[in-house]
Amino acid sequence: MYEQISHSLLNAILDDLKPEIRRQDLRHFYTRLGANFFAIHSLFSTLYGHRDDFADQMLKLVETMAMGYVDRSPESERLDINRETDHNWFLSQRWVGMALYTNGFADDLADLSQKVGYFQELGINMVHVMPILECPVGKSDGGYAVSNFRRIDGRVGDLADFQALSEQFRANGILLVLDIVLNHTSDEHVWALMAKQGDLEHQEYYYTFADRRIPDLFEQSMPEIFPETDPGNFTWNEEMQRWVMTVFHDYQWDLNYSHPAVFIAMLDIVLFWANQGVDVLRLDAVAFLWKKIGSSCQNEHKAHLILQLLKDCCQVTAPGVLFIAEAIVAPVEVAKYFGEDAIVAKECEIAYNATLMALLWDGIATKNTRLLREGIKSLPSKLDRATWLNYVRCHDDIGFGFDDSDIRAAGYDPSAHRRFLVDYFTGHYDDSARGLVFMRNEATGDARICGSLASLVGLEAALERQDARLTRQAIDRILLLHGVILSFGGIPLIYNGDALGVLNDYSFRDDPDKHEDSRWVHRPKINWQQAEQRKQPGTVEFEIFTAMQRMIAIRKQTSAFADFNNRELLPVANDHVLCYARSDGQQGANSVVVLANFDASPQQVELSDLCRHGMQQGLSHGANPGFNSHCTLTDLYTGAAPTQFDGGIVLSGYQFYWLRQQG
Ligand code: GLC
To answer: Would the CB of 391 count as within 6 Å of ligand 1?
Structure first.
């Protein structure tokens, strides 16, 4: 948009740019800056316009974007331009992700580069390399307490190894995803060290207070994230003789984004990593970016403005780079991280679908899909040019943060139901689910759970008992859950080890740096000798791996699995079965109906239900997603016709179908 005030400011800024920037060829940079400048200026002045140094800060902001552009490699620029042309590229069904810790999956970055073959074997083409930046040993929160945002932890390698990895990924068509921990730094980051030494400018980078007056006011409405190990949201710092806000661990200091210097410094870091060949940046803990007394200090409007500004600036320098919002918050809040009041995403293009993840676990525990369906119905619709990251497990705990109203609609009492889920997964009813409790909050009664996918669905217990039937059941549950995330719409993100059925790793209990954090139970080191079993028919690894391989390959060929708001929940009469249709915008005939049986017993779904609903409702994109009453059906996953009986489709325990109508 052209607007006189911001445009004349832009002219003045361009005149004032450092000579070394002005000498560069900035053609693409200028067009993008012109297009985004009105928005950038408006957001920056909403956040910082009251300050005397506003004009200086605005100049620094533009210089930071320009310097980032000057450093962008020709290869990255080529990708930027291709992705501008094919701007919906990431909505395609051909992307399948995996999240891993470098030293859990491999020895280090160099070794990770050698493991591209494994990704290709499985069909993975997007890899989230969990945080690898420098962190103090023993005070790292698994890499989320960064002490230097530009240096790689020496134990996994250095920048040259990272560049080699990024080149290796690019050469093999694999997207590289990296974390940026925007919300806080380690208390050993140079900014914190300077703050501790009394440097006032750097004290302003954080929320620090001489006494408890303000902290006590904040505490009245702020929940606790790690109540067992790090109760409260403030920590007294002896050196500084001040309280500092520490929402997560006491060594993670929350950054204060009401200072433009913090925003500009973090933008500079975002652009630095964008220029190292990163395709997608996972923005950690974005819900916490703005703090306001009297609020929970999560999902604040200004947190969204910070993200919009970050996106607008990154689009000027590195438009091909996408953002993932890691916001594990209530369903109505999550969708706002795509951008409030927007049509296409204007904050983060991708967001974790934590709601679906937790709902799937509810289905496993209850063996019915009542809450799963209610939750899916209330999932806010996503914007165009935005997509979900669908996952079953990740490196974090599982919280059951569904909407209370959805829980009631499914026929349960919210707090009793949440208690049931925690009890179920921690083996209270039988010991088949091997989860561990995480951060029980005695005051609120809340708790979350940890555990690897395989151990939570009963594989660990089944193998211990050498029970072939239970082993098969656990494998089928693993495949069922992936059958949903691979077909739901969005990018599926498979967690390290889950395609091999890796069990809980209890060794963290003997490690003094880890024993208090049960999330380490599901952050194992892959045993590659054992992983070789994936090639050996009859083994658990083979059963899981080859099935996932097949599912991934089929997903990639199934255009109805791309994410264009083309999913419709079909309300079949059988409570145990989740059913949705995925239509293909271009070719109605290619629609797929997904059926997933969350019960251990066989279940039947009336074919007439699917026909009736499909025919009456249709989908906004493309043709009728349901079936004609006399059609021939094929399950894309097995390549065979589904079992039918007495006018119905029959699913065995934990079976899923991806059904397509032939002819
Ligand atoms: C994110 C990370 C989690 C970490 C937290 C604090 O939620 O996923 O592992 O503990 O941020 O950085």
So the answer is: no
Which residues lie across from 58 on neighbouring strands? none
pLDDT at position 617: 40
- pLDDT (0 to 100) of residue 245: 98
Measured at the CA of 134, the angle between CA 131 and CA 135, to 5 degrees, comes to 85
Residue 248 CB less than 6 A away from ligand 1: yes
Amino acid 663: pLDDT: 59
Q: Residue 620 corresponds to which tokens in the numbers above?
A: 């906004």
What confidence score (pLDDT) does residue 616 get?
A: 38
Please tell me the predicted confidence (pLDDT) of residue 624: 47
d(CA 191, CA 204): 10
Q: Which residues are catalytic?
A: 284, 326
Task: Check residue 476 and give its pLDDT.
Answer: 98
Widest CA span in the chain: 79
Determine the distance separating the centroid of ligand 1 and the alpha carbon of 417, expressed in angstroms. Answer: 26
> Three-class SS of residue 413?
coil
Ligand 1 binding pocket includes 141 (Cβ within 6 Å): yes
How far is ligand 1, taken at its centre, from the CA of residue 390, in Å?
18
8 Å CB contact between 313 and 287: no
Which pLDDT does position 342 carry in this prediction? 76
CB 459 within 8 A of CB 630: no
Residue bearing the CA closest to ligand 1, atom 2: 284
Q: How far is the centre of ligand 1, averaged over its atoms, from the C-alpha of 285 (Å)?
A: 6
Alpha carbon nearest to ligand 1 atom 9, residue: 396
In short, whether 329's Cβ falls inside 6 Å of ligand 1 is no
Distances (CA, A) of 119 to 170, 492, 500, 549: 13, 14, 13, 10
3-state class percentages of the chain: helix first, strand second, coil last, to nearest 5: 45, 15, 40
Return the structure tokens found at 120. 């290709």
Asked if residue 325 has its Cβ within 6 Å of ligand 1, the reply is no
461, 468, 476: which is closest to 602 by C-alpha? 476
Below-70 pLDDT ranges, the chain: 585-588, 612-630, 663
Residues in the chain: 663
Rounded to the nearest angstrom, the distance between the alpha carbon of 253 and the centre of ligand 1 is 13
Q: Is 492 helix (H, G, I), strand (E, B) or coil?
A: strand
Say how far apart CA 460 and CA 428 lie, in whole Å. Answer: 16
Residue 150 three-state SS: strand
The one-letter amino acid at 374: E
What phi and psi values does residue 82 have, to the nearest 5 degrees? Answer: -60, -40
Nearest Cα residue to atom 8 of ligand 1: 396
Decide: 284 in ligand 1 pocket, CB within 6 A: yes
Query: What tokens were used for 477?
Result: 């549950």
| Distance in angstroms (rounded) separating the CA atoms of residues 288 and 587 | 42
